[in-house]
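Obj: model holo form, ligand = calcium ion.
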Amino acid sequence: MSDSPTNTLSSWVEVTKNSDFTIHNLPFGIFQNKKLSPRIGIAIGDKIVDLSILDQEGFFADMFLPGGVFLSGSLNDMIGLGKVITKKIRERVQDLLLVDNEKLRDHSARGKVMLHRKEATMLMPVKIGDYTDFYSSKEHATNVGKMFRDPENALLPNWKHLPVGYHGRASSIIPSGVPITRPKGQTKDPDGAPVFGPSKKLDFELELAFITGKSTKLGDSVSTADAEDYIFGFVLFNDWSARDIQAWEYVPLGPFLGKSFGSSISPWVVTLEALERFKVESPVQEPEVLDYLKCEKSHSFDINLEAHIQPENEKSSKVCTSNFKNMYWNVAQQLAHHTVNGCNINVGDMMASGTISGQEPDSFGSMLELSWNGENAVKLESGTERRFIEDGDTVIMKGFAEKNGIRVGFGEVKTTVLSAK
Ligand code: CA
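Output (holo structure tokens):
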């Protein structure tokens, strides 16, 4: 039995109806627990499949994988084996988990292979060499342009001709669960004089990021047609932003300390293959783009996205519902543009989408837009109001795709904000 778009598979592992981690998903991640050193796992339901034990028990023997490839603190070396191999690894695990397959289900090592997710700590899935952040949502770019520039000409003249992006900071990308400290920096006081102190406009940005799975040589480019060969998978991405620091520093070279203090990601990498069935048509691009940005196929995905705020000792409230299909520029165009000048990419690079906003006010993917730069209070369920993110708040982002009863999701990225040091 294979995983085709019309085939619903089931597993001998119990998977609840709303679980993101179905047998159709099988994302890769790095975990450890009290007894086990960091290693590669695949999530299903409430369980993790320990790939290193599967390997030791000979379940991948016919693939001749390098020894110990799953006993690693990052996915990079496994991803570097290439998509042909990583697809086979995932398909082998999918096959072993099928309801009628007894090979692992009835194996004496099953207890060692299948671990509880709640007993595991999830670590950074990849060692990120370089991180790029795009700015690919038309609605987000329009909202920001209206607020800070000219409401009549919100999009700058280049925006519809190329996927705008900037080179970000890889060292401060952290996994879900690791708190973030409110940044300090220079901002402008109401009289226009520079002052120093903790940011008063701390914000999230609701994004997805893809992780590259194949390197290129300096001087080479990737076409939109080949781009998906270079994409291993996706994670949720919260691009923390200090709006007051950003507003003062960004002219003329763009984001710096208002962004580089941290970005948070979800720990399970959902593969491109798992998302294939959720492809939808890309938005019409008008004016027509230059040839190197044209696409033969669709590279847009219908993925529901949410952002929630949970103030300290209160329940959490959903503040934004958006969708990845809203993106004007797709991932193939982003990668083609990134490499068109010969810039090389490496396995484990991270390319974030930019804030994913929709057209409706409740689909805006940042507090900057939801509160319109602090003009309007955003009401939370408890009656508390927020214009930006306060100390002690936890921001939670979730994402999932669902079609014909098949669900593939990302879990969450959850981060608590600590007061400035
Ligand atoms: Ca961003």
